[in-house]
């Protein structure tokens, strides 16, 4: 998955890619509706857990989703900092 031409999530990280794709699509939907950022919809951990469970076919708990999101955030931040030469 690329943002402004920079690969921030690779296809090999299937769960991370899926979660990022869900977040990205939600962002694009809210943007297309002309919503201001303060009104963008939030997605609950339960909703992510349900989506991941449906996608993978195995049980996913909310704690695992939180860890996945935290790791995704850290990985994206590190990738951007590395690309911008700030690490």
Put the structure in a nutshell:
With 87 residues, the protein is mainly alpha-helical. Helix content is 61%, strand content 5%. The protein has helices spanning 14-32, 45-56, 62-83; strands at 2-3, 6-7.
What does this structure look like?
The chain is mainly α and 87 residues long. The protein has one domain (11-83). Helix content is 61%, strand content 5%. The protein has helices at residues 14-32, 45-56, 62-83, and strands at 2-3, 6-7. A two-stranded antiparallel sheet has the order 1-2. Helix 2 packs across helix 3 (62-83). The radius of gyration is 14 Å and the shape is globular. It starts with a strand and ends with a helix.
What features would you highlight for this structure?
mainly alpha, 5% strand, 87 residues, globular
Order of helices and strands: EEHHH
Number of domain modules: 1
State the shape.
Answer: globular
Q: What is the number of E strands?
A: 2
Question: Uncertain segments of ≥5 residues (pLDDT<50)?
Answer: none
Count every helix, treating DSSP H or I runs of 4 or more residues as helices: 3
Overall pLDDT metric: 86
Q: How far is the N terminus from the C terminus?
A: 22 Å
What does the main sheet amount to?
Answer: 2 strands, antiparallel
Give the strand order, joined by hyphens, for the main sheet.
1-2
